[in-house]
């Protein structure tokens, strides 16, 4: 047999397990980055190829672009692309060093007047963008963009001057939330799960949990979804479940839900795997290419969430 140059992989899982079905889907449909991530998480693949694949999206300014986040097309760096890159680096244990120093310099260059990140930087103007994503000339600071980035940097013990004001912004935004929507709450959790002041984070998370339950922002019974309103501007059926908030059992959001509620939500997640082996995209889709590119991302994250909660995935 001819040499392929590829490293040997462990034996494939049984053909009907969740992982095996997802693996076929990923090899058929995913970008190289998601293929490398899948191999790293579920087949013992190395971290170096993931970093190499991610480098294709990196720009000279230290940020990331080139549709790394599928709803934003074009080459320019954006906070959401860069947050995505940080999640990848964190997932493979490479969120450190000069690469992250360059990212922090980029974050500094695109920050708002109060030191936080806009959801969309105006440099996106002129490039294809999902129609439901506003591009404005002077965008406000957004917890949605800032919270996950600050949380990841703290989680990896990164210290940079940019973090001081950005952390202060996140505290103020999280502690003033009264009415919100699921994605903003998830961003708040991403910050609180790694914020250095643990007693303050626990108190803020406890209050947010009461907000989530009071406003029915988590669908606690997947068999009665009509009882849970979809947030304004979300796609029909774009419900959020306990596992969306508590991605791991260690998350502060895990305390918001009973064991039965979490079990039902994880059962629902596992049941969402489709015939082709992938998981569906629940948010609004605007063109074939972004929708197709998002499904492998969702599939890898679904499997990681199930595994983190101790569910057998094959």
Fold blueprint:
Elements: H1 18-29, H2 32-42, H3 48-55, H4 79-91, H5 97-110, H6 143-155, H7 162-175, H8 182-192, H9 198-214, H10 242-245, H11 259-271, H12 288-308
Helix pairs in contact: 1-2, 1-12, 2-3, 2-12, 4-6, 6-7, 6-8, 8-9
Please provide a written account of the structure.
With 314 residues, the protein is mostly helical. 48% of the residues lie in helices and 0% in strands. The protein contains twelve helices and no strands. The chain has helices at 18-29, 32-42, 48-55, 79-91, 97-110, 143-155, 162-175, 182-192, 198-214, 242-245, 259-271, 288-308. It is globular, with a radius of gyration of 19 Å. The two termini are 29 Å apart.
Distance between the termini: 29 Å
The dominant shape is: globular
Report strand %.
under 5%
Average pLDDT reading = 94
Largest sheet: none
Which bin fits the share of residues in helices? 40-55%
Taken in chain order, the helices and strands follow as HHHHHHHHHHHH
Query: Which structural category fits the helices and strands?
Result: mainly alpha
Instruction: Please state the CA-atom Rg, rounded to the nearest Å.
Output: 19 Å
Oligomer: single chain
Strands, total number: 0
Q: How many DSSP H or I helices?
A: 12
Uncertain parts: none
Please outline what is shown here.
This is Prenyltransferase. It contains twelve helices and no strands.
């Amino acid at each position: 047999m001819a040499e392929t140059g590829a490293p040997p992989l462990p034996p494939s899982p049984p053909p009907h397990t969740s992982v095996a079905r997802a693996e076929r889907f990923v090899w058929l449909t995913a970008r190289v980055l998601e293929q490398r991530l899948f191999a790293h998480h579920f087949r013992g693949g190395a971290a170096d190829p993931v970093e190499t694949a991610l480098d294709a999206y990196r720009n000279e300014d230290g940020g990331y672009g080139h549709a790394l986040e599928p709803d934003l097309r074009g080459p320019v760096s954006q906070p959401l692309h860069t947050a995505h890159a940080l999640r990848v680096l964190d997932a493979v244990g490479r969120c450190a060093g000069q690469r992250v120093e360059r990212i922090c310099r980029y974050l500094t260059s695109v920050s708002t007047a109060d030191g936080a990140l806009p959801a969309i930087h105006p440099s996106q103007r002129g490039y294809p963008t999902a129609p439901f994503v506003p591009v404005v000339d002077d965008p406000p600071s957004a917890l949605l963009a800032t919270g996950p980035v600050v949380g990841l940097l703290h989680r990896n013990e990164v210290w940079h001057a940019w973090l001081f004001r950005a952390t202060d912004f996140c505290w103020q935004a999280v502690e003033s939330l009264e009415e919100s929507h699921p994605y903003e709450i998830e961003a708040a959790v991403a910050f609180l799960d790694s914020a250095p002041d643990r007693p303050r984070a626990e108190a803020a998370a406890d209050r947010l949990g009461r907000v989530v339950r009071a406003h029915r922002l988590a669908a606690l019974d997947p068999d009665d979804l009509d009882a849970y309103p979809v947030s304004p501007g979300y796609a029909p059926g774009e419900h959020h479940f306990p596992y969306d908030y508590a991605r791991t059992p260690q998350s502060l959001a895990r305390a918001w839900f009973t064991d039965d509620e979490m079990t039902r939500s994880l059962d629902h997640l596992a049941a969402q795997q489709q015939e082709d082996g992938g998981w569906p995209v629940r948010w609004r889709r605007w063109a074939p290419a972004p929708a197709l590119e998002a499904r492998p991302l969702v599939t890898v994250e679904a499997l990681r969430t199930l595994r983190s909660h101790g569910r057998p995935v094959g």
